[in-house]
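Pasting as-is:
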Amino acid sequence: MPYPSNDERDRPWVMRTYAGHSSASASNELYRRNLAKGQTGLSVAFDLPTQTGYDPDDQLARGEVGRVGVPISHLGDMRALFNEIPLEQMNTSMTINATAMWLLALYQVVAEEQGADTSKLAGTTQNDIVKEYLSRGTYVFPPAPSMRLITDMVAYTVHAMPKFNPINVCSYHLQEAGATPVQEVAFAMSTAIAVLDAVRDSGQVSEEDFGKVVGRISFFVNAGVRFIEEMSKMRAFGKLWDEITRERYGVEDPKMRRFRYGVQVNSLGLTEAQPENNVQRIVLEMLGVTLSKDARARAIQLPAWNEALGLPRPWDQQWALRMQQVLAYESDLLEYEDIFEGSKVIEAKVDSIIEGAKALMQQIEEMGGAVAGIESGFMKGALVDSLASRRARIESGDDIIVGMNKFDSTEPSPLTDESQESIMTVDPGVEQAAVDAVRRWRAERDNPRVEKALAGLREAARSTANLMEATLECARAGVTTGEWAQTLREEFGEFRAPTGVSAASASGEAGEALQRVRARVSELSDRMGRRLKMLVGKPGLDGHSNGAEQIAVRARDAGFEVIYQGIRLTPEQIVAAAVEEDVHVVGLSVLSGSHLEVVPAVVRGLRENGMDDVPVIVGGIIPDEDARALTQQGVAKVFTPKDYELNDIMSSIIDVVEQGSGLLAESK
């Protein structure tokens, strides 16, 4: 099978599709197919247990194994993932954060087993824990030890893997969580500063080599559909990064100061309604990060047109790859110097973004930097508030989403024909197979060596030693992902980030629709003898909390008493909270695909605790067939991305509370 050469993978950019599912062997087959189709780099999606440091047989992993990515529990899985793929020739991006050190160690050991020169390994670990606290939710440890893990990785790779990017400062999910261009630039730059300051202050890298550290910092950004704004944002990123690295860190080499970034175009703007419109959205967003030569992405990932519906099929991923190839090889759009140079419109927009970002960065610096901004809840609250404002503009029609809040009449789409599957489904047997496999692995390995390796990791964690060497020994010894993470949990503790909900308000000057909902909440509360109380829960490992946060904010503004404890809860914990708080309704948010496992567990738990009359509602990326199955199992209402009107959702919630309480007939 032909693979791209080192020269080919750098021209005109690294083309990737973000992929991984079910098992290491199934994902390996997918990667090899994509490489044969002309993909020039790998972008590995890991499942949520792997991202958050749990083995497949852990209680919290139920329903999550292999759903949003590939499960990697140990060295054997990593071997299978890259079987017959020469890692020395690859440019491999790994979307992994809290457990990034562990996955990089496994990757290095597999490369060594292939006979690769590890100094030639090229690729990226995302490894941006700051944005996990703010948006995506796959954090494990508190901020300080998390920054230590990042610092140790940077210090290790600058010499051992000089072509590898040890951190990919990721503003992509910030935009998904509501960030404006100014917030996206400011928060990403503040994160990079926090990392570079930590590496510099650790004393692990000499002053002479610090330019190499700066030169390996890469960024992963979001490209939205507002073309001028997004393209100007990228030019602003580049100018600001050059200024920071020159003035703050004294880097003289322009090559080391270059803003190096990859991009995934915006998934937030993809719609379930008329999903065929997503194709033109994706193409326009791709143009925003390719046309400006002076700020062109070095790697691009495109989502599939149907990601708002569920897990894309291989054909859908192929379509996304072909979009890039048509632009790169058929058009002439990449053959000229920067066609926006000298544009007064673009220059003014760039200057405006830089000015706003600098002001916000200064505010963060004055509070102690990015870590302090996380711990105080300032940065998270700002994102929740921004997203609430965006949702309000969509609801009012000020922001138009074609096919959703305007031009919504449509013809039947052959792309979503119910006679054929329009998304890929994960075999229910995948999880049990992974559970059985990890248990076999533990039974067959050299357990005394494992215990010694874990003891070495624990000892290193208690000292100031670089943790990478101890982690590599764990990888070689056969330690599992859960064991590595649990050892560090015991030493570093766990962390629950601020939700940002208390600081945000979706209402502003409440419109008529919200006023009507408030009146209904007040009236029903009076009839029930106390204020309506709603529990918003995030079961399982899904950390994408934007939807849950917006429901919590709007419910609070509508007059509900809202209980929201954040992400990563077991069904048992959610049931216990519902019983303790004596709530009137439980709302669950699941976007990872585990809804058929975790939601029925909550319903059963409520029934077992005598709360049969408490309705359960669910929101998420849930296919119609699954929604029907959930309804049959006792769920009162299912909401999907097409249900964008939050006041309508609130009215539906009031309806189900009335029905569950038996007061509906009385009110009529």
